[in-house]
Amino acid sequence: MSTAINETPPSSCYTEEQELLELERKYCSWGDTVHYLDPPKFFDRAEGHYLYDREGTPYLDLQMWYSAASFGYGNRRLNDALKNQIDKLPQLACQYLHTEKVELAAAIGRLNESKFGLEGRVHFNVGGAQAIEDSLKIVRNSTGKNHVFAFMGGYHGRTLGASAITSSYRYRRRFGHFSDRAHFVPFPYCFRCPYGKKPEDCGLYCVDQFARNFDTEYNSFWDPKTNESEFAAFYVEAIQATGGYVIPPPEYFPALKKVLDERNILLVDDEIQMGFYRAGKFWAIENFNVEPDIIVFGKALTNGLNPLSGLWAREELISPEVFPPGATHSTFSSNPLGTAVGLEAVRMMEDENYEEITRSKGAYFLAQLKELQRRYPKVIGDTDGMGMALRIEICGHDGYEPDRELTDRMFAEGMKGDLDARGRRTGLVLDIGGYYKNVFTLAPCFDMTEDEIDIAVELFEQLIRRCAPERV
Ligand SMILES: Cc1ncc(COP(=O)(O)O)c(C=O)c1O
């Protein structure tokens, strides 16, 4: 053990944690995101929207495992579904059928029939990025083309295929290319419009710019002789998640879809983070009145209990004639623990009015954030939200220059666990996203009451006052 550890005051819990940290430093890969925080943080217990550290201190969680645990830690109904399945059919090779798999696929298929008037099928996998990989296979298989569009600021996962269509170069830098890199198109991030326009009078200039790519074959995308694009699909997040919970203007997607439809380019909708009511509707894309050709989902389908992801594709893209048995497979793809919880979660979403819950609580939360922005204009440059997907953009004195350093300090301060929640020692769990890593992306638990939302905002205000006292 290092000298520093021998010098620490005696406390059984503290010493044990130090030992674990030493072991982690030596034996765990640092290739995941644990070391974004220094020192990394241990948690011991979770309940509702609170995480508890090894000393029992509660931390109010405003990110809920990047929106994977939207329905609350230890959700009784979903936990029971998992427990029942463990005693009934805990394991089964995915080459055999089980009831929950079929019922879950049918539930999602029927939902999409009613929402979009489209027939389709569901294919399961275990992680978001793997489901994205499956969707790339479906796109390539049905169009015979490799090239796709994706958005600047988009995030689709870190497998080799998914990182090829994720905009940040840092996810590819060490590994070279395996799959074709997407052509990245500016997202309508109106607070920082990539074209320097204002949403009030831009006339959707960004869609026009995209459409101009097809004006002539010399722009490299289009063959006018065959009326065919070299690009098979456009991968979108209706609301950019890792990109900073950026919400496009309502007219954007219908206009983009028109350009795609006229060129026979598929729309692939990544709902991995925003699906399952995070943005006020079952699918976030429903807020924008367009019909996707493929939907990819994951995270909150099982409330983070047992990994299950998947995709839904229109029948003509995934029918057994075009996507035959064995076209894609993974050992754990439709694992029965995952499908059992997923099925119960979808039933729960049918029983409860999550549209109303997320819309009303989200509106309440956003109003508090707007008030905070009004009071701290030298810290908060922008706030926005749709359903319970909320953003707070941390900026410099001018309310515009991204302030990544202050964002990092506020994040770390929340993790100290010594804020004051009306007399109770508490921490605040936040997540940082955004193009400049200066956005707090809030994905609160759907169960939070208005009073608890008030407490969350009070804790956030304490972070501002502690970390930027000269700007309050
Ligand atoms: C929109 C989106 N797509 C894909 C992924 C990748 O999912 P996973 O981390 O489960 O591979 C994520 C994860 O954050 C995501 O937010």
Provide structural commentary.
With 472 residues, the protein is α/β, with parallel strands linked by helices. 35% of the residues lie in helices and 16% in strands. The chain has 14 helices and 18 strands. It has helices spanning 3-6, 12-27, 64-67, 76-88, 99-116, 128-143, 160-164, 205-212, 252-262, 315-318, 336-351, 354-375, 404-414, 450-467, and strands at residues 45-47, 50-52, 58-61, 120-125, 147-151, 183-185, 222-223, 228-229, 231-236, 266-270, 294-297, 309-314, 380-386, 389-394, 419-421, 424-429, 432-433, 439-442. The strands form four sheets. It has a seven-stranded mixed sheet with strand order 4-12-11-10-9-5-6, with helices on both faces. Strand 15 and strand 16 (424-429) form a beta hairpin. Helix 4 (76-88) runs antiparallel to helix 11 (336-351) and helix 5 crosses helix 11. The radius of gyration is 23 Å and the shape is globular. The two termini are 43 Å apart. Residues 1-12 have low confidence and may be disordered. The chain binds pyridoxal-5'-phosphate (PLP). The site of pyridoxal-5'-phosphate has 15 residues, from helix 6.
| Strand order within the widest beta sheet | 4-12-11-10-9-5-6
Q: Note the gap between the termini.
A: 43 Å
Radius of gyration: 23 Å
How much helical structure, as a percent, in the residues? Answer: 25-40%
Structural class: alpha/beta
What are the segments in which pLDDT stays under 50 over at least 5 consecutive residues?
Answer: 1-12
Proportion of residues in extended strands: 15-25%
The main pleated sheet reads as: 7 strands, mixed
